[in-house]
Each structure stands twice: as C-alpha cells, then as structure tokens.
Amino acid sequence: MQQIANFAEAFIKLFNLGGENLMGLVTGILPTLLVLITLVNAIIAIVGQERVDKLAALASKNVITRYTILPILAVFFLTNPMCYNFGKFVEEKYKPAYYDATVSFVHPITGLFPHANAGELFVYQGIAAGITALELSTGQLAVRYFLVGVVVILIRGIVTERITVMLMKKQAK
C-alpha cells in the first residue's frame, strides 16, 4: 500500500515540477521570444519581403556566403523550420549542402537569438547553466557558440557540396 502511495506522490510531483518549469518559462524567456519574433517580422515588413529575397538570392551565388550569410539570414529571419525555404535561391546541385549548413546552424544561433530556434532553447540553457554555476559570462559563451557555428557550417557546406557534386557526376556516367 505504501508503494502505491509513494508512486502516486512521485507521479504528481513530476507534474508539479513541470508546472513550475512552465511558469518559469512564461515569466522568463517566452516574453523575450515573443518580442524578438515581433521585431524580426517588423524588420521584414519594413525592409520588404522582396528585398529580403533579393539579399538571399545574392548570398547564394558565392560558396562562402552560400554557407555562412545565407544560413544565418535564413535562421535569423525565418527561424527553424522555415529557414530551409531559403534553399529556393540555391541551385539544385547546392541544395543538399545548403540544407546541411542551415540545419547545423539552428543551435549555435540560439544563445544570441533565442527566437531562431525556441524549441531547442533548452540545449543552450543546459550548457549555460554550467557556465552560470561557474560564475562566467553566458554572453561570451553565446558569442563563441555563434562564431564556432559559423565556421562549422562553412566547413560542412563546402564538404557536402563537394560530395554532392562528385556523386552527381558519378550518377551521370
């Protein structure tokens, strides 16, 4: 009988902790996310969707910008998962590499711009909790996370592009 009571208490405690976590999000990060999403949508509205599209098309022309600037713009403005739509500006043979670069960037941007991938914010917050416990700056962590992410997406984009082109040539034979 005691085991059933202990199980019931633990079961309810799990939901109470979940509720506390939700309230922490509602009073903490959620208002920030809403304001950031509103700001990004306002920027797009002010600048104009056509200009954003032109900038994306321009960024897709060069190997460096295709795997750095384009994914950064896509993830910042469109957020995850809509950011993959910027692939429409990339030539067909470069689309797998664009996707690889973009999907690899949805986490590194989260520390500076949590609106970009709000669903995975807990990953960054878990890392940041360790930094906070050491009384170090989470701002520096976010910047480093972002910069390393840019280097990684460039490398992944170039490598995936070369593999894709090689496989396409092989398949054409």
TrEMBL record:
NCBIfam families: EII-GUT (TIGR00821). One of its GO terms (biological process) is phosphoenolpyruvate-dependent sugar phosphotransferase system. This is Glucitol/sorbitol permease IIC component. The keyword Transmembrane applies. Keywords: Membrane, Transmembrane, Transmembrane helix. The keyword Nucleus does not apply. PANTHER family: PTS SYSTEM GLUCITOL/SORBITOL-SPECIFIC EIIC COMPONENT, PTS SYSTEM GLUCITOL_SORBITOL-SPECIFIC EIIC COMPONENT. It comes from the Bacteria. One of its GO terms (cellular component) is membrane. The gene is srlA_1. InterPro entries: PTS_IID_sorb. The chain crosses the membrane at residues 22-47, 67-87, 142-159.
